[in-house]
């Protein structure tokens, strides 16, 4: 295989070779050191195969690839691998530079080396022996590495020009080749787009911050670039936070003096909009986690200020010590945001699990979602709602308490529904039926309480859908319960809940479902009715009818056929 992969023809494309090598040798997992080792080994094999040795074990003798050597296309591959080896070493150093800043100097030196090799490759490709598409690829590769060097040097304008040149060439190549190759070029364009927007922001492009927010939403720019994006967005909000001085919530205006709280509240609307526009569950979950992490950090900062405020109050013995202070109310507001975000995140996860629960299992060996998973999510939601009702400063807000109470009833109904579903799976029909009735009871309470609250169902799951689903499940379950009881063995023990008999006769509750094991077993204990009145009934005499039939003979039979005498 080592000999086969070192074969190179003019039809092979640089980007295709690079991507295949990177995916197979470490970069799938971000292991630049492994990829660098692969590049070194491949270079050694190429030099040995081509007889292009750099001296011997005692002395180094440098050699250059010239245009005259291009009768063998593998010399281009040799220069390409030299550039890739230098680039991979630079990326390895970039990871290590997070903890060892001095390695940044070595990083820049290796990036410049990679760019120098790419310029040599571009110059070799100017030869008439090289076709047009390979020339374009060499130009794009050089522009990419040059942009990387300028990017690390924070020369934003020059970096942006180089990346734009690279992007333009790859977009043209994508439109000129088959779909399979076009995907590779488009991937490269997607990789450099975050860098272009980052450069634009640093050049003070007014639209760049919107582009960065959109890129964060779509999940663009992974790894180290994602960290830079978060830092950049925070910096942008910090500049805007100076204009924010107060926030209004539940009819009370609260001054915001803590910078961390200002930055968080300023970006709250953007974060919520990003979550609403997220295209896939993975991106949405990442955005929820980011928002919750920022919220926890902000709450911690406010908590530290609250400690200082409490000490000052102890010294001054303020007369209004019983009143909730502005800082405490701000803490309640931030806690409200955190708890509501937790509820929304778990509801989103529950919605995804419900959809998967309805899908047929494709792999029997793989464990799919179960009702117990949803019960756990609704437990967390109910716990968050319980904490909401205890927030300081909102104890006397009756409207708020009614809203929380209504939400609690809705989620209790859904939790109860999935508990019933878990009992159905183990064929405990009676328990499941009782729980379904409890769900309907909760649903009726929700409908009666919601009339007094406007927009009460805006952020809640649809209770009407739940009622319809419960009714459908209930009738199916009643049939399954009867069939299940009739198929059980006579000697099977009957649960204690089912042994309670109703003294009402069966005819008095025909419309109500009642699971009585004595009625649905193999030997049902049904009331028997005997018609004793039949023995005392006097029937009319039929002698004349019988006589006529006997005396008719053949003539009567013929008359009967033709209808005579009737």
Automatic annotation (TrEMBL):
Annotated signal peptide: none
Chain segments annotated as coiled-coil in the UniProt record: none
SUPFAM superfamilies: TPR-like (SSF48452)
Major localization listed first in the record, in broad terms: cytoplasm
Places the protein is found: Cytoplasm; Endoplasmic reticulum; Nucleus, Nucleolus
Any GO BP annotation: SRP-dependent cotranslational protein targeting to membrane
GO CC, one annotated term: cytosol
Keywords per UniProt: Cytoplasm, Endoplasmic reticulum, Nucleus, Ribonucleoprotein, RNA-binding, Signal recognition particle
Gene Ontology MF annotations: 7S RNA binding; endoplasmic reticulum signal peptide binding; signal recognition particle binding
Key word Endoplasmic reticulum present: yes
Tree of life domain: Eukaryota
Family, as annotated: Belongs to the SRP68 family.
Function: Component of the signal recognition particle (SRP) complex, a ribonucleoprotein complex that mediates the cotranslational targeting of secretory and membrane proteins to the endoplasmic reticulum (ER). The SRP complex interacts with the signal sequence in nascent secretory and membrane proteins and directs them to the membrane of the ER.
Protein's name according to its UniProt entry: Signal recognition particle subunit SRP68
Organism expressing this protein natively: Anabas testudineus
Taxonomic lineage from the root: Eukaryota, Metazoa, Chordata, Craniata, Vertebrata
């Amino acid at each position: 295989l080592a000999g086969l992969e070192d074969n190179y023809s003019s039809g092979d494309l640089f980007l295709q070779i690079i991507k295949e090598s990177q995916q197979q040798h470490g970069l799938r997992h971000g292991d630049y050191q492994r990829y660098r080792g692969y590049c070194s080994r491949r270079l050694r094999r190429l030099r040995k195969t081509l007889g292009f040795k750099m001296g011997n074990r005692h002395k180094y003798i440098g050699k250059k690839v010239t245009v005259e050597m291009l009768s063998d296309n593998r010399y281009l591959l040799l220069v390409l691998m030299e550039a890739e080896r230098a680039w991979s070493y630079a990326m390895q150093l970039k990871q290590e530079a997070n903890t060892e800043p001095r390695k940044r100097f070595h990083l820049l030196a290796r990036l410049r080396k990679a760019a120098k090799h790419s310029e040599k490759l571009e110059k070799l490709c100017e030869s008439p022996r090289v076709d047009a598409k390979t020339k374009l690829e060499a130009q794009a590769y050089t522009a990419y590495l040059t942009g990387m060097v300028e990017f690390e040097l924070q020369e934003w304008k020059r970096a942006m020009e180089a990346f734009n040149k690279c992007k333009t060439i790859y977009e043209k190549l994508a439109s000129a080749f088959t779909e399979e190759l076009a995907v590779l070029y488009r991937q490269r364009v997607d990789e450099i787009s975050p860098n272009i927007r980052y450069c634009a922001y640093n050049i003070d492009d007014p639209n760049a911050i919107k582009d960065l927010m959109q890129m964060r939403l779509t999940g663009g720019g992974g790894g180290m670039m994602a960290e830079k994006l978060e830092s950049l967005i925070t910096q942008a909000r910090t500049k805007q936070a100076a204009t924010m001085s107060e926030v209004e919530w539940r009819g009370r205006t609260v001054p915001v003096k803590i910078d961390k709280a200002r930055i968080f509240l300023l970006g709250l609307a953007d974060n919520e909009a990003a979550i609403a526009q997220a295209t896939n569950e993975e991106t949405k979950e990442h955005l929820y986690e980011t928002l919750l992490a920022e919220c926890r950090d902000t709450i911690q900062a406010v908590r530290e200020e609250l400690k200082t405020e409490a000490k000052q109050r102890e010294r001054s013995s303020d007369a209004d010590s019983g009143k909730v202070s502005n800082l405490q109310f701000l803490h309640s507001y931030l806690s409200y945001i955190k708890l509501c975000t937790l509820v929304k995140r778990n509801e989103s996860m529950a919605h995804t699990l419900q959809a998967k629960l309805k899908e047929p299992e494709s792999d029997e060996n793989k464990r799919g979602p179960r009702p117990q998973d949803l019960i756990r999510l609704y437990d967390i939601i109910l716990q968050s709602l319980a904490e909401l009702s205890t927030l300081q400063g909102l104890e006397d807000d009756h409207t708020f308490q009614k809203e929380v109470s209504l939400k609690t009833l809705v989620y209790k109904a859904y939790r109860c529904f999935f508990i019933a579903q878990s009992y159905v799976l183990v064929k405990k029909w009676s328990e499941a039926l009782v729980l379904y009735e409890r769900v309907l009871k909760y649903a009726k309470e929700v409908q009666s309480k919601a009339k007094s609250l406007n927009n009460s169902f805006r952020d809640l799951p649809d209770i009407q859908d739940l009622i319809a689903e419960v009714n459908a499940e209930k009738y199916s379950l009643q049939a399954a319960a009867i069939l299940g009881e009739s198929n059980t063995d006579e000697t099977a023990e009957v649960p204690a809940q089912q042994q309670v008999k109703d003294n009402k006769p069966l005819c008095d509750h025909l419309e109500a479902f009642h699971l009585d094991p004595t009625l649905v077993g193999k030997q049902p204990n049904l009331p028997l009715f005997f018609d004793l009145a039949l023995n005392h009934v006097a029937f009319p005499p039929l002698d004349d009818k019988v006589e006529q039939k006997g005396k008719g003979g053949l003539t009567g039979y013929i008359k009967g056929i033709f209808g005579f005498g009737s």
